[in-house]
Amino acid sequence: MEIRVLDKHYEVIHRIRSAGSLNVYTARDLNRTEDNLCTVVCVRDEALIRELIPVTTVSGTSRSFKDLRDSFIADGKYYIVFRHVEGESYAEAVKRHTWNLEERLLLVKNLFFRILTLNMPTCFIYEALRRDSIAVDEAMGVSFRYRFAEAESYGSVTEEDCMKRIDSLLRELFEKERAEKSSPELTRFFRDMEKGKFEALWDYYVAFDEIYDQLRLKSANHELRPGRFRRMGEWFKKKIPVVKTALIVALIAAAGIYLLRTLPNPVLSDNGISFSQIGTLEIEEQQ
Which of 47, 71, 119, 180 has the highest CB neighbour number within 10 Å of its CB? Predict the structure, then answer.
């Protein structure tokens, strides 16, 4: 399948997804000799086309939104062309990899940096923050896939909606540190987040950037430890077998002492103790 109009020429390689009046393809831009793979979105619904045009024309969006390559109308359909991104999605990567703290910090920094430098419309930030839209490479670099999975909500998406997605990602990535309270910096960051002190995505970036270098250094020097109460709990768990053994020994010793002090003992008596019968055997006392 080919898409041709005027000087534009795309060869469709395969269909990524189809949803009603919207199809998403992987295609090759035949006018490019390098970096010619792209994602092409084809929209047939007129109402959705009118909604998308203001945020998907190269002339109407920021020049820094370089992931958006082109858009045009052909045969009553609206085509939007994005840079194609290969690689593992965040949803896949987080299952396969056990990232250390330094890697996770770098991932978040790159995520914020990518969002801010692209300066894309809010609806695309919202879409890009989906776990299956974020692509993560081996160096923790971040790119975005555009699949228009939530195109029907583009007109109503707000920055607050994007912030909720950031919240969810951060809580997932730093779940261990939050549970252990091993970093006062991260604890303070999440406390500020929960109190609503961040009013925009830029606020998240600034607050995170302030603690980034400090956390990386502490992690490299192994200076992050669980909080005091968690350390006490872990210490107590380790000591339980020792304490249990000591209690058993103490109980046995106490029982032994009790028997020695309460049972009659001929050895401890001056006159001894006389027994007239042992079981069914009668004993006659010698005169």
Answer: 71
